[in-house]
């Protein structure tokens, strides 16, 4: 339109003069600058940031007390929740132990009922009464022995195992039962059995099994030991130990007491040795093929010199003894019985210290051992001659088992 106006003026027509057009353009330009400057002053980014910061600061100051209160309340609630969770966990553990104990008692009752079939009613009642009237104790220690091991037994009697009235006192006051465990000979009533009868008459420290003694029957002997011990004593733990191992009963009791809240434990020095397929080797495993290809290792299990099982597991062995498979080595057999069960394996190296100087150095360092033997001999080498030395150098004080609270 402006172009047309100019052209019309140039042609002499009656349009707006050119100077007015120029004036209008200049006026528009300055007016625009003025408006922009005003707006720029209002929307200055620096000022906006400062104002926003000031507003946020005021808001924070206003909100800070309430936030601090909320934090304190949240912290208090978190502490209360943690305490409740801890209490709930303790209750659950107690319930689990109670339920497990009831399940084992039920299983024992069923097994007893099954075994009583065909037995006269009077004998059944007597057996059930004996089971209910079992002595409640802390732990039972079965010391596996043989007919030929009289000198080994005497070496233990003269060192770490109390004798006579002290043995009874240990049971009554501390709940600790110790017995040498042995079966009978292939000809019951023979000279070997009579020798054990005479020894029992003198010391009163045997647990006799309905079992024919023999080296290749150790897995069966272990089963019968647990079954017999469970039937006679209501113990928290059942211990198996060989008669060429040195034991500190007080230290063993302290070790077991730490795990009393756990329902099913299997404790010892865990190992995983090779499965030996060669027939000429001492620990040959005839069923080696069950463990995979030749050269494989056994599953983890406690070494046979000393191991511990809790009451539920000992009861499980007793109830199911007729269907539990026995391998060539009794420690492997025991470990296999717990495969697939909800059992806690506890690897405790205080149960397998070496003989002096190993156990002596550990005792001096404040870490006394519960049991000592030589790995190279699967027991104390020449135990009859050396048991006294091991006891003098690594044994606990005579009063330790009496003064210790379990």
From TrEMBL:
Keyword field contains ATP-binding: no
Pathway: Protein modification; protein glycosylation
GO function terms (MF aspect): galactosyltransferase activity
Subcellular location as annotated: Golgi apparatus membrane
Classification via InterPro entries: DUF4094, Glyco_trans_31
GO CC annotation terms, alphabetical: Golgi membrane
EC number annotated for this UniProt entry: 2.4.1.-
UniProt domain DUF4094: residue ranges: 18-111
Topology with respect to the bilayer: Single-pass type II membrane protein
Enzyme class name: transferase
Cofactor(s) required for function per UniProt: Mn(2+)
Transmembrane region(s): 20-40
UniProt keyword Transmembrane, yes or no: yes
Keywords associated with the record: Glycosyltransferase, Golgi apparatus, Manganese, Membrane, Signal-anchor, Transferase, Transmembrane, Transmembrane helix
Similarity annotation: Belongs to the glycosyltransferase 31 family.
Matches recorded under PANTHER family: BETA-1,3-N-ACETYLGLUCOSAMINYLTRANSFERASE (PTHR11214), BETA-1,6-GALACTOSYLTRANSFERASE GALT31A (PTHR11214:SF123)
Protein name: Hexosyltransferase
Organism listed in the record: Aquilegia coerulea
């Amino acid at each position: 339109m402006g172009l047309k106006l100019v052209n019309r003026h140039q042609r002499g027509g009656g349009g707006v003069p050119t100077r007015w057009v120029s004036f209008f353009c200049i006026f528009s330009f300055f007016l625009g600058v003025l408006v922009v400057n005003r707006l720029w002053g209002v929307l200055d980014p620096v000022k906006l940031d400062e104002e926003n910061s000031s507003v946020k600061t005021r808001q924070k100051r206003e909100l800070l007390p309430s936030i601090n209160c909320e934090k304190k309340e949240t912290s208090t609630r978190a502490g209360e929740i943690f305490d409740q969770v801890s209490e709930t966990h303790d209750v659950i553990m107690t319930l689990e132990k109670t339920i497990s104990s009831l399940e084992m008692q039920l299983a024992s009752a069923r097994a007893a009922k099954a075994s009583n079939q065909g037995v006269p009613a009077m004998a059944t009642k007597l057996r059930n009464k004996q089971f209910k009237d079992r002595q409640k104790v802390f732990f039972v220690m079965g010391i596996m022995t043989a007919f030929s091991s009289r000198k080994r037994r005497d070496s233990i009697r003269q060192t770490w195992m109390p004798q006579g009235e002290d043995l009874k006192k240990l049971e009554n006051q501390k709940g600790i039962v110790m017995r040498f465990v042995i079966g009978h000979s292939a000809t019951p009533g023979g000279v070997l059995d009579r020798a054990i009868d005479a020894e029992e008459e003198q010391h009163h420290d045997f647990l006799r099994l309905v079992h024919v003694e023999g080296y290749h029957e150790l897995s069966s002997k272990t089963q019968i030991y647990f079954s017999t011990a469970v039937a006679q004593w209501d113990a928290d733990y059942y211990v198996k130990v060989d008669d060429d191992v040195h034991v500190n009963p007080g230290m063993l009791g302290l070790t077991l007491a730490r795990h009393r809240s756990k329902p099913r434990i299997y404790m010892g020095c865990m190992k995983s040795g090779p499965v030996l397929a060669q027939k000429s080797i001492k620990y040959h495993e005839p069923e080696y093929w069950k463990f995979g290809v030749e050269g494989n290792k056994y599953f983890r299990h406690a070494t046979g010199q000393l191991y511990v099982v809790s009451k539920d597991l000992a009861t499980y062995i007793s109830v199911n003894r007729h269907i539990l498979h026995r391998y060539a080595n009794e420690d492997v057999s025991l470990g296999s019985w717990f495969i697939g069960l909800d059992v806690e394996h506890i690897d405790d190296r205080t149960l397998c210290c070496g003989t002096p100087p190993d156990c002596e150095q550990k005792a001096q360092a404040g870490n006394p051992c519960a049991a000592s033997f030589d790995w190279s001999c699967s027991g104390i080498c020449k135990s009859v001659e050396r048991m006294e030395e091991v006891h003098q150098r690594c044994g606990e004080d005579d009063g330790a088992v009496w003064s210790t609270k379990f």
